[in-house]
UniProtKB/TrEMBL annotation, chain A:
Domain of life: Bacteria
Species this chain originates from: Phytoactinopolyspora alkaliphila
Pfam families: ABC_tran (PF00005)
Database matches in PANTHER family: D,D-DIPEPTIDE TRANSPORT ATP-BINDING PROTEIN DDPF-RELATED, TRANSPORT ATP-BINDING PROTEIN
Protein name: ABC transporter ATP-binding protein
InterPro entries, per the entry: AAA+_ATPase, ABC_transp_ATP-bind, ABC_transporter-like_ATP-bd, ABC_transporter-like_CS, P-loop_NTPase, PhnK
GO molecular function: ATP binding; ATP hydrolysis activity
Keywords, in A-Z order: ATP-binding, Nucleotide-binding, Transport
Segments forming domain ABC transporter: 10-253
Gene Ontology annotations of biological process type: transmembrane transport
SMART domains, per the entry: AAA
């Protein structure tokens, strides 16, 4: 085992995902290999339909790979089942694209944050609530509003609550699937700042998926560019943005440059 | 949202629902009241006056049915041969008597009891069967779903009145037989609805988020999916209750209701037609209460439907 691979937390090894649809098979992810080292943020960029979200779900073990495997801390996710898999999930959490869709609508904000703690039997009823209030405070949601329901919050607030929920289990890996794409631009900046701060403070390993290049440039240590289910280029963020090699990456960057002022 | 008006005990000090906690830094001294999906459904239900009044009326009916032995002036089978077929307002018999001198008011009250026990029992049975089968089929998918839905389709193809007749023939003319007969006629559509709901909700991100958090299958099905699937189910159930009351009366009318002398509105109406000219009250009293209960339960159903209408969420 080489020196650098020792610190790898999650490793996708030549993973492929094919969906069978009535219109025929769709290859969402085709032979992607990607590693995330401990404490590192890897950005995944690409246009809609390039397979980014599917890759995120494969890395989280939410969907089985058609071929290839995902190793989390050297364990093949496809071999871990049932209760063991649920326990493994404590160590990896995901922030979803649509915060309102991902929060339980019939649970209050604080109950949503408590839920992962309850599921894994962490703490007592009162200590869980105290911890959840603390987490909500960390992400900037006041205790006054803890008992309100998701619909009573704005989109940005909902995403903060969703982030607090993912932090409850103190995961080692955080997968963010376009966490700001459903939010207003001004709120996007706040959420990104929050994620960047948390990532640094807690030393999280992070997979950050976005179609917004500016966002990825700001947060990621390394970037993988996806197109049609394949990683066309991968490397340190500065290298990708300053000297893109692949024609698709060049095209992607030039298409966005005028906007990133 | 939109109805967090200062209706009750909590002092909202003029905080309108528009003032969402945008900053989250606690600038608002009094946070808005927590309103979950159920509380908001209740808010919307309350706005429908007719439904609210009907609900109170239905609650009253349930109370009367429950306290029938205390309220009814006579036992339903008690005969008063000195006063046969006496009219409304007679001494001792406010709503008159039938051909055996039995008190119509008492029999109507006991008839209400029969109707409600059968209707609620049948719908409870239908609801439970529908939840178990629909939830299992919708959540598990695959062969389990195919098997359960094939069974449901077979049941669906069975004419419900024929089924009821068979049930009564097999189990005898008892309340249990009626509950099973009407309940089984009702669960099929409910089970299909539950399955459709579960299939829709399964696609929502919070279900995937639940899996990502490490929730088990049963937790996701019962704690996350079920509570969000139950709204539309309550709507159909609240419309199914008056239908079940009507079905009970219908079977009674056909002579398939509960064993006499236990009163059923259907049987009372059927008997009343034989004395229509001599004693119209025999038919009119149970028919009027029957019609009123049907209306009230249906109006409650209307309110429940509006309360759970997803379009109602906006305003």
């Amino acid at each position: 085992m080489s020196d650098s691979s020792r610190h790898v937390l999650v490793h996708a090894d030549d993973v492929t995902k094919t969906f069978s649809t009535p219109a025929g098979d769709v290859q969402a992810v085709r032979g992607v290999t990607l590693s995330v080292r401990r404490g590192e943020t890897v950005g995944v960029v690409g246009e809609s339909g390039s397979g980014k979200s599917t890759l995120a779900r494969l890395i989280m073990g939410l969907q089985p790979c058609t071929s290839g495997r995902v190793l989390f801390d050297d364990q093949d996710l496809s071999t871990v089942k049932g209760g063991d898999l649920r326990r493994l999930r404590r160590r990896m959490q995901m922030v979803f694209q649509n915060p309102f869709g991902s929060l339980l609508p019939h649970y209050s904000a604080v109950a949503n944050v408590i839920e992962p703690l309850r599921l894994h039997g962490i703490g007592s009823k009162s200590s869980r609530r105290a911890r959840a209030i603390e987490l909500l405070d960390t992400v900037g949601v006041s205790e006054h509003f803890a008992d309100l329901y998701p619909t009573q919050f704005s989109g940005g607030q909902q995403q903060r609550i969703a982030i607090a929920r993912t932090l409850a289990l103190e995961p080692e890996l955080l997968v963010c699937d376009e966490p700001t794409s459903s939010l207003d631009v001004s709120i996007q900046a706040q959420i990104l700042a929050l994620l960047a701060e948390l990532q640094q403070r807690l030393g999280l390993s992070c997979v950050f998926i976005s179609h917004n290049l500016a966002v990825v440039q700001r947060l990621a240590d390394r970037v993988a560019v996806m197109s049609h289910g394949k990683v066309v280029e991968e490397g340190p963020t500065a290298q990708i943005f300053d000297a893109p090699q692949d024609p698709y990456t060049q095209q992607l960057l030039s298409a966005v440059l005028p906007v990133t002022a | 949202m939109g109805t967090i008006a200062a209706t009750e005990d909590v002092d909202t000090t003029g905080v309108t629902p528009a003032e969402r906690p945008v900053s989250g830094t606690g600038q608002h001294e009094a946070p808005p009241r927590a309103r979950g999906p159920w509380a908001r459904a209740w808010d919307r239900f309350k706005r429908n006056r007719l439904a609210l009044i009907s609900l109170i009326f239905c609650a009253l009916l349930v109370l009367v049915a429950a306290a029938a032995p205390l309220i009814a002036p006579y036992h339903f089978g008690a005969t008063d041969y000195a006063n046969q077929l006496v009219g409304v307002g007679s001494e001792g018999h406010v709503l008159g008597t039938d051909q055996l001198g039995r008190d119509i008011l008492s029999r109507t009250i006991y008839g209400l009891r029969t109707a409600l026990i059968v209707a609620f029992g049948a719908e409870l049975l239908a609801l439970l069967a529908a939840l178990v089968i629909g939830l299992t089929a919708g959540y598990r998918g695959g062969r389990v779903e195919q098997g359960l839905m094939a069974f449901t389709d077979v049941m669906y193809a069975f004419p419900s009145y024929l089924f009821a007749i068979v049930m009564v023939a097999v189990l005898g003319r008892s309340i249990i037989a009626l509950i099973i007969a009407i309940g089984i006629a009702g669960w099929v559509t409910q089970a299909r609805l539950v399955r459709a709901q579960v299939l829709t909700i399964k696609q929502r991100e919070y279900v995937e988020a639940g899996r990502a958090m490490g929730a088990s299958g049963p937790t996701i099905a019962i704690r996350y999916i079920l509570p969000n699937a139950i709204g539309p189910l309550l709507v159909t159930t609240s419309f199914a209750i008056p239908a079940a009351i009507a079905a009970e009366a219908g079977l009674g009318l056909l002579g398939l209701g509960v064993q006499p002398p236990t009163p059923s509105w259907g049987a009372m109406i059927s008997e009343g037609t034989r004395f229509l000219l001599a004693a119209p009250h025999m038919l009119l009293a149970p028919a009027a209460v029957f019609a009123l209960s049907l209306l009230a339960f249906t109006w409650v159903g209307d309110g429940v439907r509006d309360a759970f209408d997803p379009r109602g969420e906006q305003r």
